[in-house]
Predict the 3D structure of the following.
Amino acid sequence: MIRTFVRRAGRTTTGQAKAFEALGPQFIVPYQAAVADPVTLFGRKAPVVLEIGFGMGDATALIAGVLPDINFLCCEVHEPGVGALLKRIGENDLTNIRIVAHDAVEVLDHMVAPASLAGIHVFFPDPWHKKRHHKRRLIQAQLVRRLAEHLEPGGYLHCATDWEPYAHQTLSVLQAEPLLANTATLSADGFAPRPPYRPVTKFERRGLRLGHGVWDVVFRRV
Ligand SMILES: C[S@@+](CC[C@H](N)C(=O)[O-])C[C@H]1O[C@@H](n2cnc3c(N)ncnc32)[C@H](O)[C@@H]1O
């Protein structure tokens, strides 16, 4: 199977290691090859948003803070990132996040019931610049079909990228998926305005200062 990531080496800081120890048991959900009941996972019934590849979790923690009524099921394979998000969970007293430190594609295929998600966040997925690596990109027809199938009717798929060719690929793949409809009906080019819940991260602010663009694409399951 072609994976959308390569495991990077990275040092876990002391703070992250402490967070692993203190908060891991409560907030890390072990991967399992069977559908997991979200009410059991989160200890309450609420709409579930899946996040694929949260990196260091900066945006994730901010979003979970402004949307306390949503349960966020967040996947990341980079261990220091998992530690960093746990640390933020502790600092901000967040209760509405669960982390699966595993390939999100397998989590989607096995742990999440079809038509069960209120939303999916894919923020700044690895752009895989080289042509021979394009097959590793997350946003391609086959996976987008499976993402769409796991959304409940009206559920949304929100992608953001700062790599223009990937932004166009994202838009055209989503447009070609019959289960999805673009929410950006008033926009001339099909890209959406940044929804207010998605914060501008430090990394993104730096890019914007350097004159780089950022493109949001938001579609809904029909
Ligand atoms: C470029 S980073 C962006 C991180 C974050 N969303 C942000 O906006 O800063 C992409 C992240 O996606 C993760 N990733 C890629 N494919 C994944 C997968 N299939 N499952 C879980 N995480 C994945 C990578 O490990 C990496 O940390």
About this structure: The helical segments are 14-27, 38-42, 58-66, 79-91, 104-111, 141-150, 164-175, 202-209. The pocket of S-adenosylmethionine is lined by residues 4-5, 52-55, 59, 75-78, 81, 103-105, 123-126, 201, 203 (CB under 6 Å).
